[in-house]
């Protein structure tokens, strides 16, 4: 009798809604369609390096479809090529990639399904070059992964952000305040733009369009003149003033991307109060956007991604990441994805929609958008 195929699965990087839905789809598809065995590594690549894993049977993934977080744990500090090891009270960095390959081989694995964002895909690209047979699954609330139209996790974070903006609207209206809502998203403005449009933000600020404070204040004053004595501003954590810097909240030495952004809204609020004398308050949504149950859209996307990843592994199509292309699930070489960030294009039709809805984007003109319109 032919030996059963054996799959490993891990979740890396920041958690987000839908991770468990992918794990469930991987395990169910592997067992139901191919009678494979599955093991789950704990805490992302950390588990592969340290040989920490657990068997995953159907019963282990029962009831987890709607659960936030990941039953396997995750880490965004576990690059096998630059693995942090505590020596005394300091971290040193060791290349533990060969150990990861050894553990993979010792377990008799045929393939590894790596669910994660750009850090995980970059590590996976390196591990694939060392011979590991990997299939990637694109995750992140930031929606900034190259090669896929959308990552799972984004829709759920968007729903949470939109709901928060809706709730903040009432205080803005009742107290005639300027309310700033800061959302995550790192160097890309997908979450800010989409939630800003969904929540009817009056001003939306994204990292791709460095803002001019005068443009923002003029918009707020114009609204007041028209009798709208409140304003909602939605800002991405990576947004910054023209000629200014992003606001870094902390630096995490042993993380592949060391910078943690956050707090730009406090800086902006002080400026707005100074220039308009209007009371301006800040809500930073932060990790709230990474929690909770996935939306129906994300449950479906995560399930499709997980199943397709197993089909690719079965067919021996390694070194690929499953991807959403229009409404279909395709795939892309992980080498095309690693190390790249997908930002909001400045000729994006959603930016155009926002402008049509009288939303201020913090700048007077977007030349790329104007050129795109002229070309139509
Ligand atoms: O990539 C997801 C994300 O939530 C970003 O939006 C945010 O900048 C970052 O992770 C925060 O990371 P941490 O959980 O390490 O603070």
Quick overview of this protein structure:
The chain is α/β, with parallel strands linked by helices and 376 residues long. It has two domains: 6-152 and 294-337, Rossmann fold (3-Layer(aba) Sandwich), CATH 3.40.50.450; 160-290 and 345-375, Rossmann fold, CATH 3.40.50. The protein has helices at residues 19-34, 45-50, 97-106, 118-129, 154-175, 190-198, 213-225, 264-276, 296-314, 334-337, 349-356, 367-375, and strands spanning 6-11, 37-41, 53-55, 83-87, 90-94, 111-116, 134-138, 178-183, 203-205, 231-236, 248-251, 259-261, 280-284, 320-325, 328-333.
Description of the molecule:
This protein has 376 residues and is α/β, with parallel strands linked by helices. Helices cover 38% and strands 20% of the residues. The chain has a seven-stranded mixed β-sheet with strand order 3-2-1-6-7-14-15, with helices on both faces. A four-stranded parallel β-sheet has the order 9-10-8-13, sandwiched between helices. A two-stranded antiparallel ribbon has the order 4-5. Helix 7 crosses helix 8. The relative contact order is 0.17. It binds 6-O-phosphono-beta-D-fructofuranose (F6P). The site of 6-O-phosphono-beta-D-fructofuranose has 13 residues, from strand 12. Residues 14, 76, 117, 140-142, 184-186, 237, 260-261, 290 line the site of 6-O-phosphono-beta-D-fructofuranose.
